[in-house]
Amino acid sequence: MPLSGKTILQVIPHLSAGGAERTTIEVAEALRAAGAKAIVASVGGRLEGELSRAGAELIRIDKLATKNPLGIYGNAIVLSKIIAKSHVDLVHARSRAPGWSALRAARRMKKPFVTTYHGVYNASGAAKRLYNSIMARGDVVIANSDYTAAHVIKEHPEAAGRIVTIHRGVDIKQFSPDAVLPVRRAALAKAWRLPADNPGTVILLPARMTAWKGHREAIGAAAQLLSRSGVSWRMIFAGDDQGRQGYLQELAQLIAQHGLDDRVSMVGHCDDMPAAFALADIVIAPSNQPEAFGRVAAEAGAMAVPAIGSDIGAQGEIIVDGKTGFVTPPLNPSALAEAIGKLLDRGPEGRKLMGEAAQIRVRQKFTTAALQQATLAVYERLMGRPS
User: Fold this and answer.
1) What residues contact residue 47 under an 8 Å CB cut-off, 6+ apart?
2) Would you say residue 84 lies in a domain?
3) Is the residue at 1 inside a domain?
4) Structure pTM?
5) Residues 151-163: tens digit of each pLDDT
6) Residue, of 315 and 18, whose pLDDT is higher
7) Which CATH number covers residue 216?
8) Which of 7, 34, 112, 340 has the fewest CB atoms within 10 Å, counting from its CB?
9) What are φ and ψ of residue 292, in 5° steps?
């Protein structure tokens, strides 16, 4: 095994819930399976237990998230010592501020340096562009979608020859219809107060409660769907409000104004997302800002549920319009309502066929295993290169 006996250091500011954090753990798990040692430098967070179960060592650096130049320089010294003491063979940075520290440490210790662009950073001026540029300075720059890769090339053309696209992955063992027992579905349906006998067609928008995720547009689409007869449906917003009580109140008022109180529900955070997708007949992700990857569409596809996403960002890389779901313009409730209407008209069998096509596509292109294999291949290539 090429990585056996090697030590890889991943650097990330926090271990809270998020795509970058989840990918850090997935790569750590793959490293341990390959016989390598996985170290993660971080402030820490609620995913520490999962990191430990993946077989990785957490080295806590309490001020790793700082943007203060002196703090960044100090963290570089700390990381250099970790590289020396733990015989680190490669450094992988997953965020900007600690990325600058990691770059300095890797160069000082003459170790390969990898970065991952997990999202699209705004660059409002020269100073911000310089700050962002750390993520384009890796010996290999991993982009989590073709959309992200194109953004990096536009902002940092000098990195074009070092970019590799590795899509984020879905754990198809966890996100599989066969893995969700009926008792989990029943428990969630009860928590969401769905009618036990006939909940109708369930339309799920799973996202944190923030305006750019498209809840207003979904309510507008739902209002237009009221004129359709013969189909019973219910729309669910499942996501953490993160303290945005004013936004929740605005949505509640919109729901009431459109007479949707018995059609649209806000159910809060969901701890069992596979069960949520298993309950859904249609998944929507009408984001009005570009998604760097499109996790919702990928997880829905893995669960064999057709998804509707916006035609900006990376969701179109996951959804094949008209075959595995639909893509619609952002900020367009009418287009969203039309796409939902098409899926309602297809009925259970038509949606099942489209969901199965989505599942095949996700299992071929967007799995955790594929992400792990591709990332480890990057490590092997860099460590096999003469220094």
Assistant:
1) 15, 16, 17, 21, 22, 25
2) yes
3) no
4) 0.89
5) 999 999 999 999 9
6) 315
7) 3.40.50.2000
8) 7
9) -70, -25
